[in-house]
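Let's sit down with a protein and look at its sequence and fold side by side. Which protein we use is up to you, so please pick one and set it down. Label the sequence line and the structure token line clearly, so we can match residues to local backbone shapes. Go ahead whenever you are ready, and we will take it from there:

***
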Amino acid sequence: MASDEVLYDIADGVMTITLNRPDKLNAFTPAMRDAMIAAFDNADADDAVRVVIVTGAGRGFCAGADLSQGASRFDVSARLGDGEIDYSREEARDSGGQLALRIFASLKLIIGAVNGPAVGVGATMLLPMDIRLASTAARFGFPFTRRGLVPEACSTWFLPRAVGMQRAMEWVATGRVFPAEEALASGLVRSLHAPDDLLSAARALAAEVVREAAPVSVALSRQLMWRMLGADHPMQAHQQESRLLLDRGRSADVREGVASFLEKRPPHFAGQVSQDMPPTYPWWSEPAYR
């Protein structure tokens, strides 16, 4: 879905998605959700896209949900009507959760480049991204309890896995906004950069993936890593890795990867995510609610 509130462009194998309400610190709206989901759909369908970078326009990444409507922003009666709530309706779903689940399902590596405040959904949308870099000017917060709410965007699944239960619970219970240095120390972000250097650092990391890695292997590895977070036993990882290793071992990408290594030259992988995923993919059964 096209929207001026979210921009994206593609260059050198990288799609850059930019949240574009700079006068509102990119406060999140339903239109932004729809446009971001559409952008990730386009990224997965386009073999020219190898990596996605998400950042914000202006001095903010995303200041959270747009609260210009006041508390009615969270009142379900506006969407579902008064009376008993039918929780099975699509309109009852958390907007941030819909975006987080789409990011989780992505077949391309996703890098968050947090250029400024990332609060509420601005922080939770980062959690299913693979690598998070931040500006020294960035700040983070999960202020849901301070608004009488609970965490959203599947963050009760993602956040403890990213930083551990103790730190996750502290941030959620206090709802305080904390500096980039605390995010780095807790593992929420991978590195800090001067504001003017942030995007170049993200692009350098993306360029290494584009230059060196097989697209199909990145897609499969991404899904293996995320989905095995919920596995009950390492045997589940062993079983699926074994199947994919057998599938990939017969591919032209493996022949090229080994030849380029032995010949000491850059690889030229021909495999495409759109048409060369192995027959064992996908190996999971998605919940009906997605």
The two ends are 18 Å apart (CA to CA). The CA atoms of residues 123 and 140 lie 6 Å apart. The chain has two domains: 6-68+89-209, 214-290.
